[in-house]
Amino acid sequence: MRKTLKIYKPFTHAGILMSAQYRANFLFFLLGDILMCFINYFLWHAVYNSGGSESFMGFSEVDMVVYIFISFLTATIAYSDGSYAVGEEIRDGTIAMRMIKPIRFDLAFLFQELGERLMTLFLVFAPLVIGVEIYKFAATGTVAFSIVNFVLYFLSLTLAYLINFYFNVCYGYSAFVLKNLWGSNLLKNCIVGFLSGGTIPLAFLPPVVGAVFNFLPFASLTYTPVMIYIGMYEPMRILLSFGLQIFWLAFFIVLQQIIWNASVKRLSVQGG
């Protein structure tokens, strides 16, 4: 483990420097996403006011507001650009330079992205969590913060990022065949955003559909961590959710290695 960290630590440092270099671009994207959160807030606020009920599908208005902002935080921290980055390296041929180095392709990308995630964590995580807890206190008049749920949420969030990373790396390898992933990436992000519960909670779906979506790996990316944070899951459900996240993480780690071993044999460079 120590040897691995020594080899790949420079990639994390490079990721931090890249995030710092393009910080204005990052901040503008972040502001745009936060604006979308407030749009969702006013939308659901209107839904609860017009419905005349304090809860909808088991969610109070306070729960729904927390869900909106924590799901945004979760999606931001667990975001992975692996599919685009891998696809671009395959398209322009720079992947060949990585292949001749004595390093694992997936770990090099992982440690580089960890540097970028650390910057995001530093800038976004604490302010949003504090803001959400202040809102909960202002709305309910009681301190509802649970340190146990927070720790479990953070562990689930870590697994969510790793699942998302390896899923995107697997998808990025399709550039060996498709050559350019720009358009398909947009479609993939929209589908994953819905299946992960980032658009609406999966609890709002019909029971059979919700059960299927909960088993798929995408629910582990956003929905599972957020439901743990809100306190909607009982201890047994949390254990099952962690087990499912570990299963999908192991599945995508093995799958990416299988695809990598098969794909490098048919590498065809378009440029570079």
Outline: globular
End-to-end CA span: 35 Å
Give the strand order of the largest sheet, numbering strands 1, 2, ... along the chain. 1-2
Which whole number gives the mean pLDDT?
84
Q: Approximately how much beta-strand content do the residues carry? A: under 5%
Low-confidence stretches: none
Q: Outline the biggest β-sheet.
A: 2 strands, antiparallel
Written overview of the protein:
By secondary structure, the chain is mainly α. The chain is 76% helix and 1% strand. The protein contains twelve helices and two strands. It has helices at residues 2-21, 23-51, 61-77, 82-92, 95-99, 105-140, 147-172, 175-178, 182-195, 207-215, 223-230, 235-263; strands at residues 55-56, 59-60. A two-stranded antiparallel sheet has the order 1-2. The model has no long low-confidence stretch (mean pLDDT 84).
Quickly describe the structure:
With 272 residues, the protein is mainly α. It has helices spanning 2-21, 23-51, 61-77, 82-92, 95-99, 105-140, 147-172, 175-178, 182-195, 207-215, 223-230, 235-263; strands spanning 55-56, 59-60.
Task: Lay out the secondary structure.
Layout: H1 2-21, H2 23-51, E1 55-56, E2 59-60, H3 61-77, H4 82-92, H5 95-99, H6 105-140, H7 147-172, H8 175-178, H9 182-195, H10 207-215, H11 223-230, H12 235-263
Antiparallel strand pairs: 1-2
Question: Notable features of this structure?
Answer:
272 residues, mainly alpha, two-stranded antiparallel sheet, 76% helix, single chain
